[in-house]
Specification:
mainly alpha
């Protein structure tokens, strides 16, 4: 018989354990004395191990619980450790600045290319005031 406890709440588990004990104790009244004494000893053994596991878990958390914490203002940090912790942030900022510069340069190159085409092309001056030509220019610049 496989029974899984879905609720991991300690109070729920303790209540479930007490209910199981009550049912087992009711059935234990009908058992011979020798078997009931063996069961009693096994229960005591199980309870003593349960207490050890709880205290062991508490000491493990207290000893190893600080390992995952970030000690940003710790006294034992050297200059190189502090520098290494800021390197990823520095690389991110440098990358964003490089992307911004490249985007501005590409935009300026596109505008210069359109201006060069307009200046070297044979267009009458009326073309520059035509609304269709302005739409053509805006479409050309956005591509």
């Amino acid at each position: 018989m496989n029974i899984t406890i879905q609720n991991r709440d300690p109070d729920y588990q303790d209540r479930l354990g007490r209910e199981l004990i009550a049912r087992l104790n009711d059935g234990a009244q009908q058992l011979p004395h020798e078997i009931s004494e063996r069961l009693k000893a096994a229960r005591m053994q199980a309870l003593s191990k349960r207490k050890i596991v709880k205290s062991q878990l508490a000491t493990d958390l207290s000893v190893h619980g600080h390992a995952a914490a970030l000690h940003l203002g710790g006294e034992h940090r050297s200059f190189w450790n502090r520098l290494a912790s800021f390197l990823p942030l520095l690389a991110l900022v440098a990358g964003l600045l490089a992307i911004d510069v490249l985007q501005e340069q590409n935009r300026a190159d596109e505008l210069a290319e359109v201006d060069a085409e307009l200046l070297t092309d044979d267009l009458p001056p009326e073309a520059f005031t035509d609304p269709g030509f302005l739409r053509f220019l805006s479409a050309k610049v956005s591509n």
